[in-house]
Every structure is written in structure tokens, then in C-alpha cells.
Amino acid sequence: MTDATEEALAAIKFDTDGLVPAIAQQHDSGEVLMVAWMNRDAVRATLSEGRVCYWSRSRGKLWRKGETSGQVQHLREFRLDCDGDTILLLVEQDGVACHTGRRNCFFRAWRNGGWHVIAEPEIDPEKLYPGAAG
Amino acid sequence: MTDATEEALAAIKFDTDGLVPAIAQQHDSGEVLMVAWMNRDAVRATLSEGRVCYWSRSRGKLWRKGETSGQVQHLREFRLDCDGDTILLLVEQDGVACHTGRRNCFFRAWRNGGWHVIAEPEIDPEKLYPGAAG
Questions:
Q1: Which pTM does this prediction carry?
Q2: What does the pLDDT look like over B26-42, one tens digit per residue?
């Protein structure tokens, strides 16, 4: 690991679980695609590989976005907020970001006193995760 | 509190501290302004008042954005992600979102092996928080 990467890590305030939330935003359209979590190793992998790697809290391991689905997020820029406790990733998203097959995860909107689904799947989730349970 | 608001809350997965992260995004430009946290009462206040209210973890109380600084976030849409554990707020931001006086909080970018400040303050923080310690 390079000294530079350690400098990047030193500015980030990880929580007591060693995690920090990361927003993925499509770099040109500004679309907010998803939010997931990173630990130190996920940050190292993302910066060194130029593709986004999260920490999967449910699986308890590094999660190179797209490793199963092919929906890779190519890193365009890595930004940090004023408090150092949230990361903003500007990315080029291959295909869709959401495991439901939708372009982004924020497809429920609260309108007129109820939840409304405002985007439909662009890809069948079965095709993203062949043989997966869900 | 209306039944509708309780329906909104029922879809949100708050963490073990009763909190959920919320992204504020400028509704027309797509600029990601900031990330903060909401508890149930903050969601109730945001939906009923039409302006964004967070939960301040440092102060341990509701934080109606702009109540001190005047930098109010007017709610345009309230969205929820696929897992129900992250909120996306589309807002009309009065003035600047960041306590440093910058338009948004993500003003540090990792470029060529170092952190670079990519935006300057638009307002003197002293004018946002007169008499505040910092």
C-alpha cells in the first residue's frame, strides 16, 4: 500500500464499526445511484483499482460492485465531505446500480400521502444474479 | 400525527440507534449538497413542515436546517431506497448547505495522490453563525 493511500485514509473518519457511508453518483447526469458502506480495505481497493469496492455488511466481506452482476462502477472521482465522515463517489455506472434491475435505488417517492414507485426495472434481476436466491 | 406519516415511517429501516442517513440533493442541478441523519421525529417534521429537519447527533436534538444560519432546505421530494435504509431528499437550498460557507460539503477531491480543495466558501461562516465558536 502506498503512502499516498494512507494519506487518503487518514482524512476519513470511520465510525466505531470501521465503516463510512459512500454515495455513488453518476458523474455526468448527477443521478444519485446508491449508498453503501466502505471500510479501510474497500477504500484502498477502490483507489488502487479505479473501480468501486464496498464493504458488504450483510455478507461481511469486500464487495467489488459488479463482480457478480457485471454492473461495475468505474471511479471518476473520490470526494470527502467537510466532516470527513461521508464519501461521494463520482462514477461511470455500467448498466444499472440497483439489485432490483433499476437504474438507481431511490425509486420510491412519497407523494400525496403515499409511497409511489417512480422507476421500473431496466433489466430482469434474474439476469443480474443467475441462480441467486433473491 | 397523521396515519399517512406513520405509513411513511413504516417503510423506513432505522438503525439500532433509531437513525437513518439522508442525502440532500439540489432538485434541479443534481448537486449532492450534504448527508446528515434523521430519526423518526425528524422525518415527521420534514414531511409535515415541508422543510428539512435532521437529527443532530452531536447536539442530541432535532436540527431544522437553517434555523440558525437561514440556509433552509425546502423539500421538493422525499425518496427511499430499495432497502429502506437511506433517504434521498430533493431540495431547494437557500444559500449554501455547508457550515464552512461552501455550496456543498463535498469540497475535497482525491486527485493525483493528494487531497485537493475544489470549492471555495461563498459566504463567510461567521455570517452564517454569528457568535458561534466554530
A1: 0.95
A2: 999 999 999 999 999 99
Distance from CA of B31 to the nearest CA of A (A): 7
E strands, B27-60, are 32-38, 53-56
The interface pTM score, or ipTM, of the predicted complex is: 0.94
Quote the cell numbers at residue A105. 435505488
Give the number of other CB atoms < 10 A from CB of residue B23: 25
Interface of B with A (CB under 8 A): 2, 4, 7-8, 11, 21, 23, 25, 29-32, 34-35, 47, 77-83, 86, 88, 98-100, 102, 105-111, 113-115, 118
Bridge partners of residue B78, in order along the sequence: A110, B89
CB A13 within 8 A of CB A87: no
Q: How far apart are CA B68 and CA B25, in angstroms?
A: 21
All three cell numbers of B80: 427511499
